[in-house]
Design brief:
single chain; alpha+beta; 5-stranded mixed β-sheet; 5-stranded antiparallel β-sheet; 10 helices; 33% helix; 18% strand; elongated; transmembrane helix; potassium
Length: 510
């Protein structure tokens, strides 16, 4: 193969190659991406073997290049040429593995096909490409003397070690570096907590006037400390505002100066200070009426002020008491007595692989028209390279057969049949350990006592799914009734279940 064919092959390989899709590295976006398998191509081979192969490959290439140059020089000048000492740079150490296995560039040309004039441009061309690729996959120079992870050993002229000992000296690929959302502890960020709270914070809302247009819902959604603060300030502001008007009117009519004059006909009787006007305002709005301070019929503005304050006070009473009643009677507390099992289980039922979990109601007053549904939260990347964070997909719990409508008198085991339309169709026991997703379960019903709609939520991550388990029975028969033992509500036991996925079982794999 001549030099022109080699160059054309390299150019066509680069022109026809598709650039790799860039995967976002944000912690909140990668929380539900599937974990790569241990034998994935994203993981490099053994670092010691890779380093030895890389050094040997660079040595062979340098020896061939030196032999070609020395043979040409000996023919012309007949002067022996001593080969220079072998020096391996850190970039060559890091990128030699990819140089020999790059599918886009192919294998390096041999000494017979490569001329001395083309050797240097070809090497620099590879160096630029591999340096960019190396900086993308290897954060940091592992061969540098200033590297904080490698302890330099050996003689000063010897090449630096490829990798040091320990876990932090390994090749840090995208799936190999430690993440802050580790699922082994409490650092795993959930979309919905186990008690049903949504971990989504809304920020950068510019048009906040929409909240004032629905003032009733805004007040009901406030926390209790802010709700009580608004409740108290509404009364205090109206009392002080009307007290200022009363005192200003009494001062303008000169009632303050003639407080002890029996011949004076005051408009506001016994109002000689702002504190007395404040007491008059409180007594008028709260209809206390002690009798020592009052508005007389000697002025028309006093009568108008009393009427206005009575109307404003009634509006505030209706609004604040109504909000307080709705806030106290909200059905969120009713959801605390609706419980879910701590784990999901996957086992066979009627020769079909099923995903099961259990729900129960602790109260004797039952939920009316209870319905159950579930969502799968999982991030994915489309074939075009678009990243969809936290995509929601429906999990069929029997809405086509009516199985999602419950008569929630005793604990119910909810079943999801894993078939072709299920998102768990191609997930087996081993692949489940590498997946990252979250199942959101939503139970809705009408509270029998108040008639309000109640909603209870919970979530299950991939670590809370037990493969090959089944729930224990918590029902027993007593004299005249059935008994529910909630101590066995979360208990499971292992059963014989194939580790294959539903798709592999349908294809007849053993």
């Amino acid at each position: 193969m001549n030099t022109t064919a080699i160059c054309s092959r390299v150019v066509l390989a680069r022109r026809n190659s598709i650039p790799p899709v860039q995967i976002l590295a944000a912690k909140h976006l990668l929380a539900y991406l599937p974990r790569p398998s241990p034998d994935s191509a994203r993981y490099t081979p053994n670092p010691r073997k890779a380093g030895a192969k890389a050094i040997m490959a660079v040595a062979v290439m340098n020896s061939r290049r030196v032999s070609i140059v020395s043979s040409k020089s000996s023919e012309s000048d007949s002067v022996p040429l001593t080969p220079p000492p072998l020096r391996v740079t850190p970039i060559q150490q890091q990128s030699s593995h990819y140089r020999l296995n790059d599918p886009e560039l192919g294998s390096p040309p041999s000494a017979q096909d490569q001329s001395p004039e083309l050797a240097k441009p070809y090497r620099s061309h590879h160096g630029r490409h591999l340096k960019r690729l190396s900086s993308k996959w290897y954060p940091g120079n592992f061969g540098s003397d200033h590297s904080p992870f490698i302890k330099r050993t050996g003689a000063p002229g010897s090449p630096p070690p490829m990798f040091g000992k320990g876990k932090r000296q390994r090749c840090k690929l995208i799936g190999d570096e430690p993440q802050a959302y580790s699922t082994t502890g409490k650092q795993r960020q959930r979309y919905v907590t186990k008690d049903g709270k949504c971990r989504v914070n809304l920020g950068h809302i510019k048009d906040k006037s929409r909240f004032l247009s629905d003032i009733f819902t805004t007040l009901v959604d406030l926390k209790y400390r802010w709700f009580l603060f608004v409740f108290t300030m509404c009364y205090i502001v109206t009392w002080v505002a009307f007290a200022e008007v009363y005192f200003l009117d009494a001062w303008l009519r000169d009632d303050v100066a003639h407080i002890h004059d029996p011949e004076w006909r005051p408009c506001f009787e016994n109002v000689d200070s702002f504190l007395a006007a404040l007491l008059l305002s409180v007594e008028s709005q709260r209809t206390i009426g002690y009798g020592s301070r009052m508005v007389t019929a000697n002025c028309i503005e006093g009568v108008v002020l009393i009427m206005a304050q009575s109307i404003v006070g009634s509006i505030i009473d209706a609004l604040m008491v109504g909000c307080m009643f709705v806030k106290i009677s909200r059905p969120q507390k009713r959801a605390q007595t609706l419980i879910f099992s701590k784990h999901c289980v996957i086992s066979e039922r009627d020769e079909q692989l099923c995903l099961l979990f259990r729900i129960g109601d602790l109260r004797e007053s039952h939920m009316v028209d209870a319905k159950i549904r579930a969502k799968l939260i999982k991030s994915r990347q489309t074939k075009e390279g678009e990243f969809i964070p936290l995509e929601q997909s429906e999990i069929n719990l029997g809405y086509d057969t009516g199985g999602d409508r419950l008569f929630l008198v005793e604990p119910q085991t909810i079943t999801h049949i894993i078939n072709e339309s299920s998102p768990f169709w191609d997930i087996g026991a081993e692949s489940l350990k590498r997946e990252r997703f979250e199942i959101i379960v939503i139970l809705e019903g009408i509270v029998e006592a108040s008639g309000m709609t109640c909603q209870a939520r919970t979530s299950y991550t991939e670590e809370e799914i037990l493969w090959g388990h089944r729930f224990e029975s918590c029902m027993s028969l007593e004299k005249g009734a059935f008994r529910v033992d909630y101590s066995a509500f979360d208990k499971t036991f292992e059963v014989q279940t194939s580790a294959l996925s539903a798709k592999e079982k349908s294809e007849g794999k053993i």
